[in-house]
Amino acid sequence: MRDCYCTVNLDQEEVFRTKIVEKSLCPFYGEDFYCEIPRTFRHLSFYIFDRDVFRRDSIIGKVAIQKEDLQKYHNRDTWFQLQHVDADSEVQGKVHLELRLSEVITDTGVVCHKLATRVLECQGLPIVNGQCDPYATVTLAGPSRSEAKKTKVKKKTNNPHFDEVFYFEVTRPSSYNKKSHFDIEDVDEVDKMEIRVDLWNASNLKFGDEFLGELRLPLKFLRQSSSYEAWYFLQPRDNGNKSLKPDDLGSLRLNVVYTEDHVFSSDYYSPLRDVLLKSADVEPVSASAAHILGEVCREKQEAAIPLVRLFLHYGRIVPFISAIANAEVKRTQDPNTIFRGNSLTSKCIDETMKLAGMHYLQVTLKPIIDEICQVHKPCEIDPVKLKDGENLENNRENLRQYVDRIFTVITKSGVSCPTVMCDIFFSLRESAAKRFQGDLDVRYTAVSSFIFLRFFAPAILSPNLFQLTPHHPDPQTSRTLTLISKTIQTLGSLSKSKSANFKESYMATFYDYFNEQKYADAVKNFLDLISSSGRRDHKSIEQPILLKEGFMIKRAQGRKRFGMKNFKKRWFRLTNHEFTYQKSKGDHPLCSIPIENILAVERLEEESFKMKNMFQVIQPERRVLYIQANNCVEAKDWIDILTKVSQCNKKRLTVYHPSAYLNGHWLCCKATADNTPGCTPCTGGLPANIQLDIDGDRETERIYSLFNLYMPKLEKMQEACGSKSVYDGPEEEEYSTFIIDDPKETYKTLKLIIEGVGTLEQEHAQYKRDKFKKTKYGSQEHPIGDKSFQTYIRQQSEISAHSI
Question: Looking at the record's lineage, which domain of life comes first (predicted)?
Answer without folding.
Answer: Eukaryota
